[in-house]
Amino acid sequence: MVSGTVHVEAVLKRKKYYDYFCWSEYRPIAQAVFSPVDASNAACGSMMNNTAWTSGKAYRINVRPKDDRRREWGEYTRTVSLHVVKMNGGNEVCRRPLGDVSVKFGADVRLSSCKTYADPHITTFNKIHYDSFGYGEFVLYRHKTLNYAVHAITYKCNGRASCNCGALIKIGNDVIRIDRCPKRRRRRSLPMKAYLFKNGELTPGTKFGIRGRTFIVTLPTGTRISVTKTQLGRVKFVNIDIKPSAADVNKVEGMFHS
C-alpha cells in the first residue's frame, strides 16, 4: 500500500532567455500550467491521490497555456520534463523520471487596438468606424467582470462639432483624470495635466508615465491606455487609444465594443 501522496512535476527545459517562470517556485515553464488553475494560481504540477496511483488506469494530465495577460505571436514548441515525486509528511521520499513531452503553445486570439480621435472619430475593437458628436462624458471601455473603465470627456469645439478634451480612467477604487478641457467661461483649452485620486494604496499592478505628448496608463491586466495631446489648426483636443490584453476578450462593453 502506498502511503503519502504522489506529485507529478513538470519542469520546462529552458530554451530562450525570455521564458516565463512559475509563481509558486522559480521554475521556467513558459506558459505551461496544469488544469484546473487560473491566472492568479499557476500550478507547477498536478497532484495524484493514492487511489489513482494504485488503480492501474491511465492518468491524464491536462496542460494548457497560462493566461498571463501577455500577447503571443505565432506558435512555438517547448520540451517539458516529467517526474513523479513521492511525498510523505511534506518531505520528498523519492523521485523518478517519466520522460520528456513536447508541448506546443501559441496565440489563437488576435488583439487589436481601438481609438477615438479628432472630433471625434471612433474605431472599435472590431474595426468598425463611426462618429460621435455629442457633448459630455461617455463610456468608451468598461470591463464586465473587473472594476476597470475608461470614460472620454468631450466639449463643443470649432463652432459645430465636439472634440475629446480629457479622459477618466477607473482602476478599482482609484481614478486617474487626464484633462485639457477649457473652463466654462474660457474658450481656450488648458495644458494637458494628469490627476490621481486614490483610495488608500494605489491598485497593485497599475503603471503610468509620460512619453512625449502622451500620457500612458497600464492596467493590472496589461491593457494600455494612451492619451495624446494634439491639435488641428486652432482646435486643440486629445486622442485616446486602448490596446487590450487577453483579459479583455469578450468581456468589454461601451463605445469601443461592437
TrEMBL record:
Signal peptide: none annotated. It comes from the Eukaryota. GO terms for molecular function: signaling receptor binding. The keyword Disulfide bond applies. Keywords: Disulfide bond, Signal. PROSITE patterns: VWFD (PS51233). GO terms for cellular component: cell surface; extracellular region. InterPro entries: Dev_Signal_Modulators, VWF_type-D. Residues 112-258 form the VWFD domain. This is VWFD domain-containing protein. It comes from Ridgeia piscesae.
